[in-house]
Amino acid sequence: MSLVNPDLQGLDLSDYAVPGRGKGLLEVFRWRYLLRLLVRKETATRYRNSALGWLWSYVRPAAQFAIFYVVLGMFLQMNKGIDNFALYLFSGIIVVNFFSEGFANGTRTLVDNAHLVRKIFLPRELFPVAAVIVSFVHFLPQMGVLLVVCAFFGWVPSVMSLLAILLGLLTLLVFTLGLGMLFGSVNVPFRDAQNFVELILLFATWASPVLYSWKMVARVAPEWLLNIYMVNPLTSVVQLFHYGFWAPVTDGAFESEFPAGLWSYAGIALLISVVVLVVGQSVFRALEPKFAQAL
Fold it and tell me: What domain range is 281 assigned to?
């Protein structure tokens, strides 16, 4: 016996989408208005009923910087081994802060918006994309502070310095979004994912040359491990930010403080980030039909 409604036989249904499934990230562009609403909601509610409001975007990185600078820079004398250590440190901290916030929020976003996922159909990719955009909005004030400090030190960027910054931002956005979609989709049926992400973020600051120089790793790590370390997207982004912001105000940094294959490592890191995004989107779409049921 046929399960198809006789009234529907012979109709062209090619223009109709399968319920619960969208067209992936590409469909986000068609829902730009809703994306803006989600971003506006998240940015408006984050500091609601807060006395300091948006100042918290400065307080956290300032506190991190102060702690790391005092402990590592003054107590462990890292400021003597790395010129302009304060600028070196802060240009790496803002990268890790963006990654940590975007990755963590992207992982929780579907669960946090379960009431929307259950009740209406919309491209579910909107939620991790909005989470990363909100993190980028919070990243901008920190970037502004970095630019002011760089200008104070006499920062005059070259074309290559600007290219390094843009490449670093692109890699950071793609990598963060890919991981957010991957772990965000897995977090719906398995809430252990967000706990696993917290463990990853514990190592994020130390797994890239934010608080130390990559040369310290090169002195003790075998070549194969050093290569893995250098193509880590987070390591690459931190290095590119150092190249763009710190090196122009530090004498001799371009010649001595970066690996010979910096741009090759950066290209591989971007490729890895794209692969992570593709895998994240694939897993997201595979689990998407069961999101409403699981939530």
Answer: 22-42+52-294
